[in-house]
Write a structure and sequence with these properties.
The structure is a single chain. The protein is 31% helix and 25% strand. The two termini are 35 Å apart. It has three domains: 81 residues, GIY-YIG endonuclease; 93 residues, no CATH class; 61 residues, no CATH class. Helix 1 packs across helix 2 and helix 3 runs antiparallel to helix 7. By secondary structure, the chain is an alpha+beta fold. The strands form three sheets. It has a four-stranded antiparallel beta sheet with strand order 7-8-9-10, covered by helices on one side.
Length: 253
C-alpha cells in the first residue's frame, strides 16, 4: 500500500477492514509520513498498525491547502484516532508586553491568557516566527526576549536595530513599527487571494479570505485570467482553526 503513495504535499486517510475512516492526516511528503505511522512504537501508531487495511490520499500541492483541508475534514468526520486534532487550543501564543514604554512581542503560554495575537503548536514554531517578525520590522531582539544582554543587542551592531535596547530610539518611534505589524496581521476587514503551488506544474492553488472571513480554497490553470480566479474557490466553513492556520502562514512568509 505505502510504496504506491506519492511523495507530495497532501492529505491521507486510513480505513479499517469495514471501511470505517479512523484517521485523517496531512504531510508535505505523504509517503514518508504514512510510513512513520506504520513504523512507530507509540500507542496511536500501534492501533493504526493493528486496524488499518486501506489507505487513500489526495495531493494538495501545498502545505497550506493540505492544512486547511485536513482541519475541515477532521471536523466533519471526527475520525476515531484524530482526538488530539479535535482540540482547538494551541498551547503557545504571541503577546504584547510593555517594557519601559516599548511594546515587546513575547512568546507565552496560552493557558492563562486570552489576548494572543497568534497561536502556535510549539515553542520552536513560535520563536522562529518571532525571529522572522523581529527582522522584518527591524525590531529589537533584546526587547522581544530573544537576546539576553545588559548592553546593546547584536542587531544594533549590524545596524538592523535602531537602538531601543540602549534607549537610543524612543518608545514612540519603536512602537510605530510594532503597530505596523499588528495592523498588517489583523484579520478584520482583510481581503486576500493567496496563490500557492498547485497539484501539478500546469495549475496553481488558491486560498481566499474576504473581509476577515476564510472563504475556502481551490485550484485552476496557471494561465487563468485574474478576474476569473474566484470562480474556482470551493467555499468552506470559517472557524478559529482555519484562521490560526492562515495567520501562521502570513507570519511565516
Amino acid at each position: 500500500m505505502i510504496e504506491r503513495l506519492p511523495g507530495l504535499p497532501g492529505v491521507y486517510f486510513f480505513y479499517t477492514e469495514n471501511d470505517d475512516l479512523v484517521y485523517i492526516g496531512k504531510s508535505i511528503h505523504i509517503r514518508k509520513r504514512v510510513l512513520q505511522h506504520f513504523q512507530g512504537k507509540d500507542n496511536k501508531s500501534r492501533k493504526i498498525q493493528r486496524t488499518v487495511t486501506r489507505i487513500a490520499c489526495e495531493p494538495m500541492g501545498s502545505e497550506l491547502i493540505a492544512l486547511l483541508y485536513e482541519s475541515d475534514l477532521i471536523k466533519r468526520h471526527q475520525p476515531l484516532y484524530n482526538s488530539s486534532q479535535r482540540r482547538t487550543m494551541d498551547p503557545f501564543g504571541l503577546y504584547i508586553q510593555h517594557e519601559n514604554g516599548y511594546k515587546a512581542l513575547r512568546v507565552g503560554n496560552n493557558q492563562e491568557r486570552g489576548d494572543e495575537i497568534i497561536t502556535f503548536a510549539g515553542t520552536t514554531e513560535a520563536k522562529n516566527a518571532l525571529y522572522r517578525l523581529t527582522e522584518k520590522y527591524k525590531l529589537c531582539p533584546k526587547i522581544n526576549g530573544l537576546y539576553n544582554t545588559r548592553s546593546a543587542c547584536f542587531h544594533y551592531q549590524i545596524k538592523s536595530c535602531h537602538g531601543a535596547c540602549i534607549d537610543q530610539e524612543s518608545p514612540e518611534s519603536y512602537n510605530q513599527r510594532v503597530d505596523a505589524f499588528l495592523h498588517a496581521y489583523r484579520f478584520e476587514g482583510f481581503t486576500k487571494l493567496f496563490e500557492v503551488e498547485g497539484r501539478s506544474a500546469e495549475e496553481k492553488g488558491l486560498v481566499y479570505i474576504e473581509r476577515g472571513i476564510y472563504r475556502g480554497f481551490g485550484f485552476c490553470a496557471r494561465d487563468t485570467p485574474e478576474d476569473q480566479l474566484l470562480k474556482y474557490i470551493n467555499y468552506r466553513a470559517d472557524n478559529k482553526d482555519a484562521r490560526r492556520i492562515l495567520m501562521r502562514y502570513l507570519v511565516s512568509r
